[in-house]
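Before drawing any conclusions, I needed to go through one protein's amino acid sequence and its backbone structure tokens, quoted below without any editing.
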Amino acid sequence: MQKLTIKIKKNSKIKDFLLNYGFSSQQANKILKNRDVKKDGKRLGADDELLAGDEVVVFCEELPEPKFKILFEDENVIVLSKGAKIEVQGKDSLEKLIPGSIAVHRLDRNTTGVMIMAKNSAAESSLKAAFKAGNIEKLYVCEVYGKPDFRGEKREAYLVKDSERSEVKVFKNYVQKAVKIATSFETVKVGAETSIVKVKLHTGKTHQIRAHLAFLGYPIIGDGKYGNNKINKKFKQNYQKLHCFSLKIEKIDKNLEYLKNKAFIDKPEWAEKYI
């Protein structure tokens, strides 16, 4: 049995607190059923309120996956490494969990890795302008099924977004409503069945990396939307093995000029020695 001592940051119901902390709904229900949350030595029930400043002890069989970790923070920005199973915006999102944070770009719900968020309107404007101008470089690493011989070359294709189905399709040649995408891939490790691939985005479209690799015949392990469910089950991976390991600000206006040429790095354990 694991024991967590946690200081409450904002008023909330116990279940909302457990879910926001990273426990799954099933884990939270079990903790509440067993009354495994204590405050001042007293076991709490599902209807009890938690107040900002309270210190609680939670007993659990398995620790929750962290939703984020802070890499850098000052009065203007917060740089973090995002975990899986959390949106950047919306209910129970990073914006909600981190008071004062403003999303200026995004990662898919189950894509992990480095992000930068603004903490005021001036920083928001500066960062959005830098992203729009292509002055912020993001590098990714992923594990794919197969043995691609990528050598860092830029691959171009065309992408069509289906908003109703929340997915995209990639085509070799232009089709109606398509936008051009460009992605560089480099194979850095080849295994028995899977490979580790480093990725650089030249355009930043919805699901670009995931869909582009699937189109090329190398789906990302764990990708439930563009991958192969049989393969995902075989490798027991519930979400795409895709991580943004580097974010570098190459150029930015005077508001955040001190961040120019600064790179923020967070390498995942499964690919650390290859990138």
